[in-house]
Description:
Blueprint: H1 3-14, H2 18-24, E1 34-49, E2 56-71, E3 74-81, H3 85-98, H4 104-132
Antiparallel strand pairs: 1-2, 2-3
Helix pairs in contact: 1-3
Amino acid sequence: MDTSTRQRWLRALANSPVERLQALLPPALSAAPRWLRRAETGLMMLQGRSGGAGARFNLGEVSVSRATCEINGHVGHGWVRGGDGRHAELIAQADALLQDSARHGELMLAWIAPLEAELAERRAARSREGAASKVEFFTMVRGE
């Protein structure tokens, strides 16, 4: 499993509503997870860069929830912005299941592909809303 693939599914899981994950995951959870770290919430420092590539600076703090579990020998981690511990636990369980090579392809098609499509649609809808309120400014040239 390469890092970019895992980042892809973790991004899709973290940006999906917890209700959607609660509907998708339970049918695939045949084994109960062994919790290495139950959900806990804390603060994380966000860093930015001047001009996007310059010197780092501390932007501020954001609350995050995290959880870690083990299912069938695979350790799954879940991180999500905010204080929703249940969301972090669902992400951790999905992460552990997606690491199983026997079920990986099936779960990517059943979970990640639809979640990514829904995320793309939400982004497109927000973009359309923003475009509808766009104001065009122009300057008239004087004296010519």
